[in-house]
Design brief:
This protein is of the alpha+beta class and 315 residues long. The chain has helices spanning 7-29, 32-36, 46-78, 83-89, 145-148, and strands at 102-104, 108-109, 138-139, 169-173, 177-182, 187-192, 209-215, 218-224, 229-230, 242-245, 250-259, 262-270, 279-286.
Amino acid sequence: MRTPVSRRETRWIAEVAHALVRAASRLVSTPCWRMHSAPGVARSGDAARTSACATSSLGGFFCASAAVLAAAMLTGLLIPAGVNAQSAKIPRTSDGKPDFSGTFEWPKSIGGPTCKCSATIFDKSKFAPLKSGGEPFFEARTGDPQHDEPREFCMPAGFPSGMLSANAVQMVQNKNYLVIVHEFQRMTRIVPMDGRPHREGLEPMFYGDPVGHWEGDTLVVETTNFKRWGLDDYYYTEPKEYRMHSEALRTIEHIKWKDASTVSYQLTIDDPKIFEGAWTQDFEMKARPDWDKMGLFEYICEENNRCPGGRCKAP
């Protein structure tokens, strides 16, 4: 699979290709005796000049053809077919950046296992090996609802678990911020995109402290400063594996348009207290402009909560 080419690299490729074409035009227009006369050697007579011109014209033709061919090959090899057309189709802001504003489906796995629930879960085959001392990543459900499902007490899902919940996601973008609002629990993340560092002196948080920057057409979001909390909803599939990330968790999101209706959402988990190294999983988010008119539904956890702490009562 070819490595994606950034806008900066694309401009560089175009400049090199144009330079090759300009060089080709100079080869064609250069007088033949200037191209083929060796230093200190003079050609005299019409026959010699005619011979030199015939040779140099042919040489100039081949040189020019080679330059043009090199430009075409350089462009073709380094820029995947259709990338310019694809790039032109994605929504962009007035300053040319990709625009992620809109309503989307939640991130969905590209293959891999599914949960015995509606949410997306991580694929265990993607995990890095557990390091010595990383066993607390897995916790059995204890029967205590405050431990087993704290969301039944309206506790936040946290990140990344909340991002994978099966509800609509709305993004609003301007020059300095990307705001991500998830319908589930109205989870809201405000991502600065001006390259600022992480804030200091904060208490550990359920959703961490995100900061973003651009790498070509990809928005990269790094989040740190978490409190220990659930990683995903896998425990609905396997109750003995309640996946808990540590407070050392660092996540990196790579967000980019895959095509005009699909956002590629790549999530890297780096938890040095749990895993030997970082690991990554790819997801997709489908744009749903048909959901824009209705918008996100209000989510108030306590209202009509008929099962506080898992103890259900008649409505």
